[in-house]
Amino acid sequence: MGDIDNRLPRDGAVLVMNPRSGGGKVARFRLVELAKAAGARVRLTGPNEDAAALARAAVADGAGVLGVAGGDGTVSAVATVATQAQLPLVVIPAGTRNHFARDLGLDISNPASALSALRAGGLAQVDLGRVGSRVFVNNVSFGAYADALLTPGYRDAKARTFMEIAPGYLGGEQWVNATVDTPDGPVECPQMVLVSNNPYHVSTLRHFGYRFALDTGQLGGIVVKRPGGAPPPDLLPRLRRELARQGHAGPPGEGVTTWTAARITLHGTAGQLPAGIDGEAVLLDLPIVCEICPRALRVLLPEASGAH
Fold it and tell me: 160 and 283 share a domain?
């Protein structure tokens, strides 16, 4: 996952923490106290102070290292600032899912263990995805999940909200109002589009949804299109089968197309599309261009960490 450099200075580390992430993991794992004991300064997000603003203020104050404790949306916001400032990032897995931290090889069951990167460890370079001016560490999604994110009350009842929205997409009554360019040609009005920072692995159940590498220099693309007149697709087995063909388009008639590319484009006449960027709801202007930024982010990792 990129070259490791153990000579990086650790002075001037500032960690941005979201105390609401993961049901309060920052407090539960005593991350503020432990970070300060490791020599870092800590800034907490709040109603009037978002993660990106706190990270930019830390850079202006002369931070030499940025850190982030929170979910993937918080990580993405601070990663954007770290990349712009050309500073290394320490990731503390204090969210609910922690997909990016997991794929970095961090111990997501013990968030505090990632703080050891401030004292020892190494520097790795990983890719970032970009859509317009926004960065994503995991993925950009269009369809049922993006609509669920925009629904009031989603954060308090995620599963229920998604289950209320998903049947319309699976039944073919709702779709993504855009055309996606794929190696097999354009796909119009798909039920789902997912663009990931490096492709996901699904050939084995144990590592389903993992990314074994974050430095391939490629986006992963998944498009689900329900064939006319067909019953709602059984998505999970189909995605497992098709994504096992990493780097290849799905066979015609399957309803699922997967591929890898440095750029993936959605276009159409809708004007805007709801999207989920690392779990955060946004509206994006069409055309939408997703690109990979190879080795754009430098991450400080504990010595025992590494990509799968």
Answer: yes
